[in-house]
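Kindly inspect this one:
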Amino acid sequence: MRISYPVRIALIAALGGFLFGFETAVISGAEKTIQSLWSLSSFWQGFTVASSLIGTVLGSIIAGKPAQKFGRKKVLYVIAIMYLLSAVGCASSTIWILFILFRFIGGIAVGASSVVGPMYISEIAPASLRGRLAGSFQLNIVAGIFIAYLTNFLFVGLGEDAWRWMLGIMVVPAGLFWALVRTIPESPRWLILNHQEDAAVPILQRLGELDVASAIETIRASVAHSSEKLFQKKYSKPILFAVLLAMFNQLSGINAIIYYAPRIFEMAGFDKAHSYLQPVYIGAANLFFTLLAMSFIDRFGRKKLLLIGSVGMIVFLGLTAMAFQGGASSNVIFYLIGFIAFFAFSQGAVIWVFISEIFPNSVRSQGGSLGSFTHWIMAAIISWTFPVIVEGSQQGGFYSFVFYSLMMLVHLVFVWKFLPETKGRSLETIQKELGIE
């Protein structure tokens, strides 16, 4: 079966999402060993885990400008190099501060990936495929999470240096990404934005554009004000929607679960071996339901998926909280799989697609950076505070999951009352429907 050109280059760009997911989840297998190795308090353990996320916040802030100046492809290439450096550095570090530095570098790569990857894919994807192709970035994220949990489980029996194998194996997908990203074209929208229409023509033709001249004229008109600043009144709607959606994504508690999955299962009464096995089931559920969401996102639309997911997340987060209040139980695995299923089917599949769609061409890189920055600053807060909360109180698990459940109730109201639908619309049409001229 021959893969079409837009699909092939979108999947290559989406490999950055695989590394994003792997780098995010792999620390879950190493974090307790690292805490013991360097005798870290719960506060400094939270900081060690969150150091990557602090880098992610920085990466999401700074990625937009080089992507605008030098192009999406060149930035993706630099991201691949940073992933390679982080993998080698984390696996070989013998000093805590060096480990933090390489985690930070990996975090910058994740933050930049979360901005530039979806941006590139949305700009090369035909409108009829954009939801699924942009969603392939999220699919790769959850595939990376699953593989990280699986390799953690496989390496856990290798002795005191098992954590080094867990972190170092990332050199394999990072090297593949580095090699393949060199083969993709530059975004035609970026070329037109930078007055390189002649270079954009053959790319648009290969992407299946039937009326290239008309497409170039439409894109050129939409970026007529490319020097504009993001923060002005006419962009208030996309700013509000992107920021709130990114906040709610993390207020679900998803990163606390991903980063601390083995610890959570130990809190629930599982032994060490099973505490590393259960996250594999979590990762598999995440992958399966993200695949399911990809088959529905361009049929059902973004908003309907978010509404369905909100209801399921409220229920299963509430059940998880009650399990911890009752002294925890083996049912926690089923409740967390339920939560992951609804998260993957909704928030997980939609967030990067929606943020990459909602901003006009002229400020898309700035808007993507804003959405990603919001997402990662919230992720850093949640991941840093989680071990402090659960170690500081016998009911820490209960309070955490009650809070996440309540946040998803507020999210349900926000989506139902305010969020627009972007399904099946060109990027320029979405701009017009939001009243942005």
